[in-house]
Prior knowledge:
The complex is a heterodimer of chains A (about 425) and B (about 250).
Chain A: H1 2-15, H2 17-56, E1 59-66, E2 91-92, H3 93-102, E3 107-111, E4 113-121, E5 134-141, H4 143-151, E6 155-160, H5 165-170, E7 174-178, H6 179-186, H7 189-192, E8 196-201, E9 207-218, H8 223-228, E10 235-239, H9 240-248, E11 253-254, E12 256-261, H10 267-281, E13 289-295, H11 296-339, H12 341-349, H13 354-390, H14 399-425, H15 429-434
Parallel strand pairs in A: 5-10, 7-9
Antiparallel strand pairs in A: 1-12, 1-13, 2-11, 3-12, 4-5, 4-8, 6-9, 8-9
Helix pairs in contact in A: 1-13, 2-11, 2-13, 2-14, 11-13, 11-14, 13-14
Chain B: E1 7-18, E2 26-37, E3 41-45, H1 52-59, E4 67-72, E5 75-76, H2 82-92, E6 93-96, H3 108-118, H4 123-136, H5 152-163, E7 170-174, H6 182-199, E8 202-207, H7 210-214, E9 218-223, E10 226-232
Parallel strand pairs in B: 3-8, 3-9, 6-7, 7-8
Antiparallel strand pairs in B: 1-2, 1-4, 4-5, 9-10
Helix pairs in contact in B: 3-4, 3-5, 4-5, 5-6
Amino acid sequence: MILDSILLAFSELKANKMRSFLTMLGIVIGISAVIAIMTVGDALKSSTMDTLGGLGATKIYYYVIQKDQRDPYDDNNYQKDTRPMRSADLFNDEMFEDLEEHFSDRIKGISIMGAQSSLSYSTSDGELENGAGKSVILYGCNQCGYEESLREGTMEFTYGRHITRQEFESGAKVIMISEDTATAYYGSPERAIGKLFEGIDTLTKRYDNYTVVGTYKKKSNGALMDMMMYVPTQIALIPLRSLHTFQMGDSMETEEFTAIAKNAEDVEEVSKEIEDYLNRVYYGNNDTYKVYSETMTSALDQIGSLTNMITLAISAIAAISLLVGGIGVMNIMVVSITERTREIGTRKALGATNNDIRMQFLIEAVVLCLVGSAIGIILGLLGGMGISSIIGFAGHASVKAIAGSVLFSMAFGIFFGYYPANKAAKMNPIDALRYE
Amino acid sequence: MKDYNETVIDLKGIYKRFYEGEPNELEILHGIDLQVKKGEFISIVGASGSGKSTLMNIIGALDRPSEGSYYLGGTDICEADDSELSHIRNKEIGFVFQTYNLIPRNTALKNVELPMMYARQSAGSRRKKAKELLELVGMGDRMSHTPDRLSGGQKQRVAIARALANDPSIILADEPTGALDSKTGRLIMDLFHELHEKKGITIVLITHSPELANETERVLTLMDGNIISEARGSTYDLRQHTFGVQ
């Protein structure tokens, strides 16, 4: 009986292909949007978590922020008219040595790396493009920061040699440039090794030079990760001391640094311990500034909540589409039942009970919704996987989302099919038989 | 004339009123008494407006009388609720309509299976029965045709096979030849006669045509909601018409 109703529903669907398709469209769009967004969202989330986690599970970032701010991105509590940072507000060598000693059993080292200045240079063909030439951004780093970025970061060492410990300590004027920069300056990465890199410091407007010891190239972590952790090839790594020694005096000062924890498990704990220590010992008397720490875990939480928000927004749109689709299904069922009034009368004359008729049209509505959702699932998966692969991740079909869609569309069919089905069931057989 | 004993339809003092209790109350049937015996072939004739359709609806358990008693095969129709009426229509009555009323997009076979489906018979047994019935009415070679690929006469034969599906107490035929040309209509009437003579099926024919009515064993004439005459029909001789019912 139910099987017969299902077969009948399919034959009705087939008989009115165009109409059925148009009716299902709302459901198709709604379900495919949900499935696509779930697929992409899942792919994004898991891959981002994997990559970010792998890249920086042990990293703890420290910033100097204003006392009223909750985090560096908190613009609401940012005071514009407060006094600017002075040398005393910044992190310095003394603190780093203290931290490395005090937390020697918890952290591997302290990584300092930051853009300090840039150097404009002329390209190999001698012409300055647009009269301005090209430039590299000088990233002064300590040895720990250098190793971190080349070992598990976004850069991959290619030619020449590494910058040595002695060079970091003495602040030697050596530089590691990208293959792109080397090609632009010298013609090829190999030819750059050992050569002098000359240019004008854009901050001091003075001539400056470094000896090229090696080159790197960008390491890809997937399109989206590359986008999020954008590494411009203009970056050039130099020993931090070479900047400070020659340009800003002897002390190494910075408003941010990264501590590398020994174990990924207690990163959060270490992060807070160091933050508290710094705030107590060094910032206790500071009237304006304090230390803020952040780990990948908190960054991951933010990304997670961002993707959740996007998912929610698109799901809301999909829900509206589904609602419209559901009303479409109801409408077409009402039309279909009116068209088939005589058929309903005949069925009743032949012995169909009200329940038989109600069941038949309910099943028809459910089949309509299910077929729509099946098409939606297929389109959604194709779309989702397509988008995922474009942004560089493997999208996985979410079994939960598919099962949910199927159940949801069944419920939808019953909900929107009930009124028309009931209308059909309650028809008076005599009137229905005479209906023209 | 054969001798019939068992009463299948027993109508006593049937009144049917519409808009009961309202100013525009309308009484269509004014106390109809009618008994049909098992195996009889009777006809009810009357002009339009005579109450034919209303009487047919009551006989067919599509409607309940306002007053009076109606027993169909021993079941009290007046006391049955909607779902019991459905059940009675399904088991006891085989409808044949003027407009065939086959389900579009369903094959002839599926159409004949329909009453058995509502009787919750298994797919196998109803398929077997439907095939037998289609063979019986001479539609064995068109079982998988949908109604839009059948002629009027063929559709009506499928409809007759469908009416026989659950071995009903009576076949209720409402102007079965009304939409057919006279030659095809003749063939359909022959089929009814054969089913009656050879299979002993009880048939109530409702028609406005006195000639067709006269072929049946008993002719009841309805006028303005009363049976005004009852006569014996006689002009049909089966031997002149061979249709092929085995």
